[in-house]
Amino acid sequence: MENDVVSKNFIEQEIDKDLAEGVYDHVCTRFPPEPNGYLHIGHAKSILLNYGLAGKYHGTFNMRFDDTNPTKEKVEFVDSIMEDIRWLGADWEDRLYFASDYFDQMYECAVRLIQKGKAYVCDLSAEEIRAYRGTLTETGKDSPYRERTVEENLRLFEEMRRGAYQDGEKVLRAKIDMASPNINMRDPVIYRVARMSHHRTGDKWCIYPMYDFAHPIEDAIEGITHSICTLEFEDHRPLYDWVVRECGFENPPRQIEFAKLYLTNVVTGKRYIKKLVEDGIVDGWDDPRLVSIAALRRRGFTPESIKMFIDMCGVSKAQSSVDYAMLEYCIREDLKMKKARMMAVLHPIKLIIDNYPEGETEYLDVPNNLENEALGTRKVPFCRELYIERDDFMEEPPKKYFRLFPGNEVRLMSAYFVTCESFVKDEAGNVTEVHCTYDPETKSGSGFNARKVKGTIHWVAAPYAQKAEVRLYENLVDEEKGVYNKEDGSLNLNPNSLTILKDCFVEPGFEKAEAYDSFQFVRTGFFCIDAKDSAPDALVFNRIVSLKSSFRLPK
């Protein structure tokens, strides 16, 4: 039992305490994104944490869109967020909600606050409100409209609702304490006039609640017990508690904050991603160089790899950043035993076996995964003309180069030993063909052991090869310079973040491959069928990750 307590994170310890003391008799969590962009890897931590807590305590998990700001919200974002959360495996069952479902109740709560003398209509402009608010070292000063009567405030607020005022002309503010050491408690704005059409409520409303007022009410209405959020909301917690208390909610939710997930050298800011999309630097919010959940899925990451990564990051109060290489480690670990190891040649040159019978094809048994025999074998065609990787042949090799060069013998993977006899160059001096002879006795699996070779190379049978486009990705930003330019705040982009190889060849066997299917290309890396651009007769592969990395798990 003692070990069980030690292994729990601080949030679980707080929930245990609340249940033991009878504060709550159940657990209900939620994930409440604003539909103003695509979710990224940091959101995955929040989704899996909230969903995981609900499961651990046999409670419920709600999905709710905080759609209180129609200027930035789109149905496209709503749809993408739901797809991402389902893909991660978080199931809200029939509990899908929208903040806009509660606009009437929020309005009633605001009226109740006015009636209690806890809210007032203010005519100050946004700039004046900021000036009156004070600073971290100076207290704020009261608005000249702070002492309006309840009756006047009720009338003005109703007029705001009916559309009698222009945007920004009047706001409703909570009446708390302009001398509070917490700036968030200095009479925050809780409603503003905004003539905007909402993607769900249309033009019913011309006033909209502010997030800090709406969010605690949404939680309270839904019966959320623990409102789990990131550390930037820690200073907002007194306001959260004030709203649910003053609005008269029984058994109000409890807000608990945890540290955000920061990845090194990645772009997560919605403003920056939006600009990258609009400037055509990336081909959408799901470009595989981004770390939006849609981009990670398109690149070939799996829900299991992301869960492994989130688990390894842990839950704490301390802000820290995680190396992107750890995420790559997780996808390698997830895929290496699951996926077939296929042969693909990304920079092809022709290899001709001069003593192999012309017009003859044999089908060789090739293991799908040497580390996992359960994946079985497949038949791969082998014949006189093959494609091999350009860097698997050198005319004048350095020491310890064990691949093909004149006079050297290597094994063709799962096939035969071949010896390089000659090669052909074009007018520019580029090698276009390598000519070899093979030894029929050396067939793989035959038990031949009369001699050994030091090099093994892969290949694709030329007449059966399927042409493919392969996309190789590097970090979108220049890792040496950092993400942001210190002078103007722009992004330090890596000009080599995408390399497109058009004339690659893969072995036959991809006819039934579908979007997001992933494979290991032997000696090269893990690759995924691109969900946007690939077609059965025009394959496009994204490199998920290379085979090796210098990353080592921290002890």
UniProtKB/TrEMBL annotation:
<feature type="domain" description="Glutamyl/glutaminyl-tRNA synthetase class Ib catalytic">
    <location>
        <begin position="27"/>
        <end position="336"/>
    </location>
</feature>
<feature type="domain" description="tRNA synthetases class I (E and Q) anti-codon binding">
    <location>
        <begin position="456"/>
        <end position="530"/>
    </location>
</feature>
<keyword id="KW-0067">ATP-binding</keyword>
<dbReference type="Pfam" id="PF00749">
    <property type="entry name" value="tRNA-synt_1c"/>
</dbReference>
<keyword id="KW-0547">Nucleotide-binding</keyword>
<keyword id="KW-0963">Cytoplasm</keyword>
<dbReference type="InterPro" id="IPR020061">
    <property type="entry name" value="Glu_tRNA_lig_a-bdl"/>
</dbReference>
<feature type="short sequence motif" description="'HIGH' region">
    <location>
        <begin position="33"/>
        <end position="43"/>
    </location>
</feature>
<keyword id="KW-0436">Ligase</keyword>
<dbReference type="InterPro" id="IPR049437">
    <property type="entry name" value="tRNA-synt_1c_C2"/>
</dbReference>
<dbReference type="Pfam" id="PF03950">
    <property type="entry name" value="tRNA-synt_1c_C"/>
</dbReference>
<feature type="domain" description="Glutamyl/glutaminyl-tRNA synthetase class Ib anti-codon binding">
    <location>
        <begin position="341"/>
        <end position="439"/>
    </location>
</feature>
<dbReference type="GO" id="GO:0006424">
    <property type="term" value="P:glutamyl-tRNA aminoacylation"/>
</dbReference>
<keyword id="KW-0648">Protein biosynthesis</keyword>
<protein>
    <recommendedName>
        <fullName>Glutamine--tRNA ligase</fullName>
        <ecNumber>6.1.1.18</ecNumber>
    </recommendedName>
</protein>
<keyword id="KW-0030">Aminoacyl-tRNA synthetase</keyword>
<dbReference type="InterPro" id="IPR020059">
    <property type="entry name" value="Glu/Gln-tRNA-synth_Ib_codon-bd"/>
</dbReference>
<dbReference type="InterPro" id="IPR020058">
    <property type="entry name" value="Glu/Gln-tRNA-synth_Ib_cat-dom"/>
</dbReference>
<dbReference type="GO" id="GO:0004819">
    <property type="term" value="F:glutamine-tRNA ligase activity"/>
</dbReference>
<dbReference type="InterPro" id="IPR004514">
    <property type="entry name" value="Gln-tRNA-synth"/>
</dbReference>
<dbReference type="GO" id="GO:0005524">
    <property type="term" value="F:ATP binding"/>
</dbReference>
<dbReference type="InterPro" id="IPR014729">
    <property type="entry name" value="Rossmann-like_a/b/a_fold"/>
</dbReference>
<dbReference type="InterPro" id="IPR000924">
    <property type="entry name" value="Glu/Gln-tRNA-synth"/>
</dbReference>
<feature type="binding site">
    <location>
        <position position="66"/>
    </location>
    <ligand>
        <name>L-glutamine</name>
    </ligand>
</feature>
<feature type="binding site">
    <location>
        <begin position="40"/>
        <end position="46"/>
    </location>
    <ligand>
        <name>ATP</name>
    </ligand>
</feature>
<dbReference type="InterPro" id="IPR050132">
    <property type="entry name" value="Gln/Glu-tRNA_Ligase"/>
</dbReference>
<comment type="similarity">
    <text>Belongs to the class-I aminoacyl-tRNA synthetase family.</text>
</comment>
<feature type="binding site">
    <location>
        <position position="230"/>
    </location>
    <ligand>
        <name>ATP</name>
    </ligand>
</feature>
<dbReference type="InterPro" id="IPR011035">
    <property type="entry name" value="Ribosomal_bL25/Gln-tRNA_synth"/>
</dbReference>
<dbReference type="InterPro" id="IPR022861">
    <property type="entry name" value="Gln_tRNA_ligase_bac"/>
</dbReference>
<dbReference type="InterPro" id="IPR001412">
    <property type="entry name" value="aa-tRNA-synth_I_CS"/>
</dbReference>
<dbReference type="InterPro" id="IPR020056">
    <property type="entry name" value="Rbsml_bL25/Gln-tRNA_synth_N"/>
</dbReference>
<feature type="binding site">
    <location>
        <begin position="34"/>
        <end position="36"/>
    </location>
    <ligand>
        <name>ATP</name>
    </ligand>
</feature>
<dbReference type="GO" id="GO:0005829">
    <property type="term" value="C:cytosol"/>
</dbReference>
<comment type="subunit">
    <text>Monomer.</text>
</comment>
<feature type="binding site">
    <location>
        <position position="211"/>
    </location>
    <ligand>
        <name>L-glutamine</name>
    </ligand>
</feature>
<dbReference type="Pfam" id="PF20974">
    <property type="entry name" value="tRNA-synt_1c_C2"/>
</dbReference>
<dbReference type="GO" id="GO:0006425">
    <property type="term" value="P:glutaminyl-tRNA aminoacylation"/>
</dbReference>
